[in-house]
Amino acid sequence: MKFTLAVIHTLALLFRQLFKKLHKGYLLGNPVTTEQEINYKIPFAHGMALISDELYESLQKNCNGDYANVETRNVLCSRDMSSFNEATSGLNSAHILDPVCEWLDDTEISPRRSLIKKYPSKFLTKNLKLPPLYCRSYPYFLCGFWANDDNVRKALHIHKGSIGKWHRCTYNIPNNADIHNTFDYHVNLSRKGIRSLIYSGDHDMSVPFLSTQAWIRSLNYSIVDDWRQWHTNDQVAGYTRTYSNRMTFATIKGGGHTAPEFRPKECFDMFSRWISKRPL
C-alpha cells in the first residue's frame, strides 16, 4: 500500500511539473485527432485533382459524406470507394508529390540488411542496389547504420550495454490503443487558456489539413486573426489563422505529413515566431 501511494504521489508531482511547463504551450503537426480523417481524404483528393468530378459527386451522393464506416450492403458506396482507392493507389500518402519508394528497414529482420552485413564488399554492387538518392527511405536506411556505429555511440556518450539498438521507427512495442479521440483534450487545454500551434503540411493525404481545420472549427472559438499568408525569406510559406482560445493554425506550403522534414527552414521560422509569442 505504501509503495502504491508513493507511485501515485510521484506521478502527481510529474503531472504538476508537466502542467507548469505548458505555460509556453504545445504544438502538433498533422495530428490524428478523431480517427475520422478518412472522411477528408476524399475532398482533399478532389481538390488536388486526384479524382474526377464525377467520382467525387458520386461518393458524396452514395456515401453521404461518411467514408469511414461504409456498410457492405451499400453497394454503390463500396463501388465508389474501390474506385477511389484505385485512383489514389501508387501515391505516397505522406506527401502526394513524393515518389513511392521501398521502405528499407535497418533491423536485423530486413533481408537487405542481412545481406549487407553478410556481404559488405558487395554493398554498392548492382546486386544490392539501393533506391535512388531522391527517395526518403534511402537516408532512413543509412541513419540506422550511423546511429548504431560503435564510434558514433561512443561520441554520443552512450555506455555500452546501457541501451539496445537504435531504430528510427519501432513498431513492435506492445501497446493497447485505448484513446481513439483526443478532441476533448484540446477542449480542456483551451479552457485553461494554454497556447497551442497546430500545423499541417498541405500535401499530406494521411491526415489532410481539411480534417484538422474541421475539428478546430468545432471548438467554436472566435477568430482573432483571420486567414492570411505567412512568409519566410519574403516568400509565401503557408497560411495561418488564430483563435480566441490562443490556438494558432498554420499550413506549411509544400509540406508533407512530417512537415519539418520537407520544409525545415519554414517550420523553424514558424516555431521560432510562435514560441517567442510573435505573429507568424
UniProtKB/TrEMBL annotation:
Listed GO biological process terms: proteolysis; secondary metabolic process
Tell me one GO molecular function of this protein: acyltransferase activity, transferring groups other than amino-acyl groups
Show which residues constitute the signal peptide.
Answer: none
Residues that span the membrane, as ranges:
none
Q: What is its main location?
A: secreted
Q: Listed GO cellular component terms?
A: extracellular region
Keywords, alphabetical: Carboxypeptidase, Disulfide bond, Glycoprotein, Hydrolase, Protease, Signal
Q: Which InterPro entries match?
A: AB_hydrolase_fold, Peptidase_S10
State one Pfam family annotation.
Peptidase_S10
**What family does the Swiss-Prot or TrEMBL record give for this protein?**
Belongs to the peptidase S10 family.
Protein name as annotated: Serine carboxypeptidase
